[in-house]
Automatic annotation (TrEMBL):
Gene Ontology BP, a term: cyclic nucleotide biosynthetic process
Residues covered by the PH domain: 1010-1119
Protein name: Adenylate cyclase
Species lineage: Eukaryota, Sar, Alveolata, Ciliophora, Intramacronucleata
Domain Guanylate cyclase, chain residue ranges per copy: 40-184, 324-400
Length: 1293
């Protein structure tokens, strides 16, 4: 049952009418269900939304957020007015909403009719109030919104449909909705209220109406005649009176993305900017007739849910509005981010078209990809929904409308087509002018000839082409040598079809995601095909949908070889299937499934997610029979075994001298049948049958060369497996892959050739790559090469994406063979930040699924941590997180989990703080850019405030720069008019920066009298007649006035400790001197003489900013001067603000201290245990064991925000007698010492111990190769220098 807090949070996402129905029914036993009522419907559509989206979309990614802000702000005003009249916001539909007034059920028809009349009056009355207050309301600068309102009345049906994965959908249907939609369409501009004939007949006596000339059945409401009906909050009363409603029933209507945030009461942090592929789907069903077609509607929605969920998308909205029956679907919504969301979206669209056609339902789909706002739309504490808003969403809606007009099933945008080019064939449909878009927009469609597999050798848009290869040439040459040797031996006849003992090659091309395996293979295929035009290359790759198929990796190969076999015979499909299956019906049925010739896919969709096959295709005997059938297909190709019905396929490929061979002469020694190279991409996703068929082909055929392409580290787990609904829970995909590859390379006559691609080796190779693909011979700053090398992680694909992003966003500017870094890029390099630079799409593809797999709390912690820096400390993190649910212990546990997940790494800790660093490349940037701009600014502000309190391990200058960076990011705003970003510091920010600047100057100059602020200001003359221009200097004790900046002649000195008042004023008496500052002093000095009388000085400044800056300087330095004077006269004191420890959270500090002490204690206990367990060793006196970490910075580009540390460790752990007698190697001693320690030394040493880096042992500065026995060793130092220049020094005593 719902608690009070849950009632407030959860019920806001469900209409009051639905909540009331659930409360009365207790539970929905079986879908579909229908709820009947008679009431009033209002359809309100925001006018000016198209202009709003067109204007704000020019602002880039922030435009999507501003669209949501504008809609939310206007919707809040609408909802507030509607709620007062008792209206229930039933659905939000982008820039529109559907409102239903809950009826009161009376005992007789007359009372019901009168009650409905009152409700109708309330509804129209609230609409008049809305128009009087909200017409032409300014939401953002120069952007005004209005609303068009339409009304209908009558019998309404609320239907409950769906149910797949427990996800239900509710939908209002009936004639009143049709009336309301048509009424709104008759409104010619914002501010108008149009009602249907039925509504007019009900309330014509209470309002002034104007009949529309265009249609006699619709009327415009002008004003109220009689007194207003008393308002009542009917919808809110329903929710307030409810008790004991089942929580699970409500949860079925709430998106999965929202539930974790609702549970921790942090709903506002669910909003994100995400790259989404949106589907707008128009369904060809009439939802207005729900009575007679309820079962059909249920079937349609069920099929829609299954097609979407099979491809792991999200059904965001189902509604009936002015566009008809419409669905909004998102691919990439949390928690279902994938590397191939655009491909999944198109596959789902194709599946929808096919499956809906089977149940006589036509659909039209528009697809668009881009950054959109995802989050809650509505009012806080009231009615709201999870929505997706942005330019890409509007574009998908326009493409859907175009698809209806052009009678095309699927139309898509250019971005979607480009991102799917390597898996699907798309072609330009036409250039069109769309509403809300300036200029012609390219619209694409999916080619019908090729459905899924795409084989091409042309120059790729990604930048890879036939120019050549840069990274790992030795590996690729080895690869090419194996292929050429195979082809040469085949040409020379050295490969016999009957010699089963002949050695066979199997090539396995491995590498991480983005290293360029597929593109390298394309280039090599091009070279092979150019030099050997007769060779047959069969290629297969798997998309996300094909993973569910049996024999997924070999399906496309079987299809291609089956078509060739059909071409070599005169059999029809069924005859050839019967021939290769030897009449076995089960094998024939499985082959039909592999060839997509039967209705298996339909059965899978109909029974999803509980599909169970009637046979086990992984049974050894069944796989053997399938393997025999596939072998027959290849034998037909090689003409080793031909049925009676045969014809020549490769006559066109014979040599010129063989043209006279008769077509009936089929002896194998006269026919040149080309060898086959089979390229199998995405090998990591292959199932057991695919690996078995690979092994069978290798065993049976000498003239077939298999090349497998696989990742070496990333496994994308299907979301169903995450939910515990794995199709094969006893065998993970990784185990299938390992066993499959092992079964192939263990064949007695197979030579495995593993080619591992490791990307770009060094900066020289990187320079060659940039020169080859971008024409960069030089960069304006050599450091850019170093930064690009580190940020791209040596992956060529990531490097090319990164450079393209920098060029597209004008961070890099190319002139001939030279590339210049923009001023903005240089500034970001100075701040050592990449947060503002748009990250390459490939990084989102890699990191997106990882981020979505995190728990809600861990994700929020990472978002806050990413703003602090690449390296962040736990005290600052705890200071800025606003979540009361996260205490000190939960914070430590969450960070421990993130370390175990390899998202962050522990660096080091001290007695009061602990430091972590992001590990995965661009993970921090992905987290940051997924946040809304409002969220980013709020966290930057919190970090800036924390930096003033919590001690930071930075140099003063760098600390000031970091503070300035965070305040600038917190207070920047975008101008809608100019589309430029502006920064205007608040008083708080200015005060923070000035104080930090003064502290830095005083620290550098050791608190001596140095100028802290100087410049020209205006001073009112002593007689208050005129203004004088004076050069003013403020040091740590005085404010000194000079005649000019030569500072040769003083005109007055004001001791800061004697200033009694500092009052900034705005003086309007003189237009030229408006910004003034009044200083009251008790004593002051003029020409070396002390003036004992009190005096008020008046100064003026040219701008308000200048006045504010001087005021802050004076206030702080005055306080500092008074403190210094007190210390000088009465002795030094320790003020609470100077107690550094109090800047830390006390409870968290206690936890850290206990953990730090526990690390030392565990070492001591282990050392004592080892001594006591050795009975043969005499008791010795061991020195006390101590551990002390001292930090000093060293330069390293791996840490954008702070240089990594040199950790010097001094400890005494081995007694003198043990040193003499112990033969244990030094490395082993260190392993034993650091066992179970939380110290960063254990991490650095033990995790890198396998690397071939050198170790230096030293005694008093002299190098040694090992510790000598029988000799005392004092001050022995071991330095271990890893590849990344972090240095660990050990000093034994």
């Amino acid at each position: 049952m719902l608690t009070k807090n849950e009632n407030m949070s959860l019920l806001g996402f469900v209409p009051a009418l639905v909540v009331q129905y659930l409360a009365n029914q207790k539970q929905i036993s079986q879908l579909p269900e229908k709820q009947n009522l008679r009431s009033v419907v209002m359809f309100a559509d925001i006018s000016g939304f198209t202009n709003l989206t067109e204007t704000l979309s020019k602002l880039g990614n922030e435009g999507a957020e501003l669209i949501a802000f504008a809609i939310n702000r206007y919707m809040e005003l609408l909802v507030s007015a509607i709620s007062k009249s008792g209206g229930d916001i039933f659905k939000f539909a982008g820039d529109a909403m559907i409102v239903v007034w809950p009826p009161s059920i009376k005992e007789n028809a007359v009372e019901n009719h009168e009650e409905l009349r009152v409700i109708c009056r309330l509804a129209v009355q609230s609409a008049l109030d809305i128009q009087s207050k909200l017409n032409n309301t300014t939401i953002l600068e120069d952007i005004k919104l209005s609303v068009k309102i339409g009304f209908g009345i009558g019998d309404i049906n609320i239907i409950y449909v769906g149910g797949v994965f427990g996800r239900s959908e509710y939908l209002a249907t009936g004639d009143p909705l049709t009336q309301a939609f048509k009424s709104e369409h008759h409104a010619t501009s914002g501010g108008q209220i149009i009602v249907s004939q039925e509504v007019f007949d009900m309330v014509s006596d209470f309002f002034v109406f104007q009949k529309l000339q265009t249609d006699s059945n619709f009327y415009m409401v002008l004003k109220l005649i009689n007194n207003k009906v008393q308002l009542k909050a009917g919808a809110q009363l329903i929710k307030n009176r409810l008790g004991g409603i089942d929580k699970q029933q409500i949860m079925t209507f709430i998106p999965a993305a929202l539930i974790p945030y609702i549970e921790i009461e942090q709903e506002k942090w669910s909003s994100e900017l995400r790259r989404i592929t949106t589907l707008f789907i128009n369904l060809g069903i009439d939802l207005s007739d729900a009575d007679s077609r309820l079962q059909h509607i249920q079937k349609v929605i069920e099929v829609v849910q299954k097609c979407i969920y099979i491809n792991e998308g999200s059904l965001n909205k189902l509604l009936m509005d002015d566009k008809g029956s419409t669905l909004i679907v998102g691919f990439g919504l949390p928690p279902l981010k994938h590397q191939d969301d655009p491909i999944r979206a198109l596959l789902a669209a194709q599946l929808l078209v096919k499956q809906l056609s089977l149940i006589n339902c036509k659909c039209y789909i528009g697809v668009a990809t881009g950054i959109v706002f995802t989050g809650v739309v509505g009012t806080s504490g009231s009615r709201r929904e999870y929505s997706i808003l942005g330019d890409a969403v509007n574009l998908a809606a326009r493409l859907m409308s175009l698809a209806i007009t052009e009678n095309k099933s699927i139309l898509l945008c250019q971005k979607t087509a480009e991102e799917c080019e390597h898996k699907m064939d798309c072609e330009l449909f036409k250039m069109v002018q769309l509403k809300g878009k300036s200029g012609l927009i390219p619209v694409y469609q999916i080619q019908q000839k090729k459905a899924i597999l795409k084989i091409h050798y042309y120059e790729s848009k990604m930048g890879f082409n036939q120019k050549g290869l840069i990274g790992g040439k030795d590996k690729t040459q080895q690869f090419l040598h194996i292929v050429n040797t195979f082809l040469m031996m085949d040409r020379e006849g050295k490969i016999s079809l009957v010699d089963m003992d002949l050695e066979r090659d199997f090539i396995l091309l491995k590498g991480s995601y983005g290293v360029g395996k597929t593109f390298v293979m394309k280039i090599l295929e091009y070279q092979i095909k150019t030099e050997n035009p007769k060779v047959l290359i069969l290629e297969s790759s798997i998309n996300s949908f094909e993973k569910i198929f049996r024999g997924n990796g070999f399906k496309n190969i079987i299809k291609q070889i089956f078509d060739i076999a059909l071409s070599k015979t005169t059999y029809i499909q069924s005859e050839l299937l019967q021939f290769i299956s030897n009449g076995n019906q089960l094998v024939q049925k499985i082959l039909e499934e592999l060839l997509d010739l039967n209705e298996w896919l339909n059965d899978y969709v109909n029974n999803f997610p509980k599909f169970e096959s009637t046979y086990n295709i992984n049974d050894d005997q069944i796989m053997k029979l399938i393997g025999q059938a596939i072998v027959k297909l290849f034998e037909i190709y090689f003409e080793q075994q031909l049925p009676d019905k045969k014809k020549r396929l490769y006559s066109q490929m014979l040599d010129d001298e063989s043209d006279d061979i008769l077509s009936n002469d089929l002896s194998s020694d006269k026919i040149d049948v080309p060898p086959i190279i089979i390229v199998l991409d995405d090998l990591q996703y292959y199932d057991q049958l695919s690996f078995y068929l690979m092994k069978t082909i290798i065993k049976k055929f000498n003239r077939i060369l298999l090349i497998g392409i696989t990742r070496d580290q990333f496994w994308e787990i299907p979301i169903m497996s995450r939910k515990g609904i794995s199709r094969n829970p006893n065998r993970t995909q990784e185990l299938i892959y390992d066993k499959g590859v092992e079964s192939i390379i263990n064949l007695y006559n197979v030579t495995p050739n593993e080619v591992i691609m490791k990307g770009i080796k060094n900066i020289e190779e990187q320079k060659q790559l940039l020169l080859l693909y971008f024409g960069f011979e030089k960069l304006s700053d050599p450091k850019i090469h170093e930064i690009l090398h580190l940020k791209s992680c040596k992956q060529p694909l990531l490097l090319i994406h990164l450079v393209k992003t920098l060029l597209n966003n004008k961070y890099l500017r190319k002139e001939n063979d030279f590339a210049y870094a923009s001023q903005q890029l240089q500034t970001l390099f100075q701040h050592e930040e990449w947060l503002q630079i748009e990250i390459p799409q490939i990084c989102l593809q890699i990191n997106g699924p990882i981020i979505d797999s995190l728990s809600c709390v861990n994700l929020l912690l990472l978002k806050f941590a990413c703003v602090i820096g690449d390296i962040f400390d736990i005290q600052t993190l705890f200071k800025i997180i606003p979540f009361k649910q996260i205490n000190q212990n939960k914070l430590l546990m969450a960070l421990k989990q993130l370390v175990q997940q390899d998202i962050i790494e522990f660096m080091h800790d001290d007695n009061e703080n602990r430091y972590y660093r992001f590990v995965t490349p661009f993970m921090r940037e992905c987290l940051y850019q997924s946040m809304t701009y409002t969220q980013r600014r709020s966290i930057h502000s919190l970090v800036a405030e924390a930096l003033q309190i919590i001690p930071q391990p930075y140099e003063d200058y760098k600390e000031l720069k970091r503070l300035e960076y965070h305040w600038s990011m917190a207070e920047q705003r975008v101008s809608i008019k100019s589309s430029n970003t502006m920064i205007k510091f608040s008083h708080k920010a200015k005060k923070s920066l000035i104080v930090k600047q003064i502290q830095m100057i005083l620290k550098i100059e050791n608190n001596v009298k140095v100028p802290l602020k100087k410049g020209y200001i205006f001073k009112r003359s002593d007689k208050k007649v005129s203004w004088q221009f004076r050069y003013c200097v403020i040091d740590s004790e005085n404010m000194i006035l000079y005649l000019n900046d030569q500072m040769s002649e003083q005109t007055g000195t004001l001791p800061l400790k004697l200033i009694s008042s500092i009052i900034p004023i705005f003086d309007k008496s003189n237009d030229q001197q408006q910004f003034c500052l009044k200083l009251g002093v008790s004593d002051w000095i003029k020409k070396g003489k002390i003036k004992g009388n009190k005096r008020v000085f008046l100064f003026a400044f040219e701008s308000e900013d200048s006045l504010e800056e001087w005021t802050i300087f004076l206030e702080f330095v005055k306080a500092k001067s008074i403190y210094n004077d007190f210390v000088e006269n009465f002795g030094r004191i320790q003020l609470p603000i100077n107690l550094i420890n109090e800047a830390f959270d006390p409870q968290l500090t206690i936890y850290l201290q206990e953990m730090f002490k526990g690390s030392i204690k565990r070492f001591r206990q282990q050392n004592v245990t080892e001594q006591m367990s050795n009975k043969n060793r005499k008791s010795t006196h061991s020195k006390p064991q101590q551990l002390q970490i001292v930090q000093s910075p060293i330069h390293n580009y791996h840490s954008p925000n702070i240089n990594p540390k040199r950790f010097s460790v001094r400890f005494s752990a081995i007694s003198e007698q043990e040193e003499k007698s112990d033969d244990t190697p030094l490395k082993e001693k260190l392993r034993q010492f650091f066992f179970g320690s939380f110290s960063v030394l254990a991490i650095h040493l033990l995790t890198h111990i396998y690397e071939p880096n050198y170790i230096i042992l030293g005694q008093e500065g002299r190098n040694m190769r090992r510790l000598m026995k029988n000799r005392k060793h004092k001050n022995n130092t071991m330095q271990r220098i890893p590849k990344n220049p972090s240095i660990i020094e050990f000093d034994f005593q």
